[in-house]
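We close this part of the discussion by returning to an individual protein. The amino acid sequence and the backbone structure tokens for this protein are reproduced below:
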Amino acid sequence: MAICGSQPARDNIPDYEYIDVNTLPFNIGAFRDAWLERLKPENYSYEEQQEDAFEAEFTQAFGISAETLSGLRSLCRQRKRRQDYKANLKIDKINRHEHYVDELEKLTVGRKPNSEDSTIPEGEVIITVNVYYPCIFERFKHVRPHMTMLMTGSHTLADLKDAICCVSDLQVGGEFSNTPNIAPDFISKDYYKSCFFFLEGVFYNDMRFPECQDISSTTVEWAKSHNFPSYRKAKMQDTKFIDLEIKVGFPYLYCHQGDCEHLVIITDIRQVLWLTTNDQFAPCDPCLFCDKCFQMLHYSVQGNKLGDFLAYPYVDPGAFN
């Protein structure tokens, strides 16, 4: 979907509040619905096209024979083998954390779920969430995010909370001078489960367990007594991402263990790959597009360019901020 840098705010279509910093608030679920209205089901279907059907469409679109296609496939296989061999000769010096992430990707990329219940629905929106180190760690204030997670629109905020791993949850409380050889069988996370997310004036509290308390009530009452704008409260386990109205790129708050505070920033809800200028099909100049929308709007079924425009591959400079 195209997004513009200098257009009036439109409901549920991301637009900048501050250029290259964060967007105006918009509803994630309505944004997903608007996206699905503009795409055909086959554009986001998981079903792989049958090889025979693909070959027939390919030969017809490019006007080549089946023999030519077979020769091209053989040539591409040979080139791919040479590329793979050269890639294996390279030794990338990465740290152990990046190496661990690479190993995890090798185990997960391309795997299919064991059951249909674990399959992400077609057309589901994917949200990139950065969770930063808690503010108490001075040395980590200016480094990369503590965790980067991909959440679906059907995930709840409680799912996000359960996925966050922080050393504060692993603390062991108590004094053990008389029993130093007895290993404690509990951690803070087991005892102090109260926490909240603060997004767009709403405190989302975790109230799934009997021992959970509304630790946001003190702040809410203080704000009322000091004539601040009123804050609302909701349960994080009942709130899905598609129900949220958020700003992309804006810092929000996750608080747990009483005073351990993390910045949480949603950095992406779509994949922008192209920037166009002098584009007769775009609503603004310049304009950003995801790959599918760019291809569908600017090229014919045969792959021929439609109209006059300039296109440049785009990398978001704030993707890792």
The chain has eight helices and 14 strands.
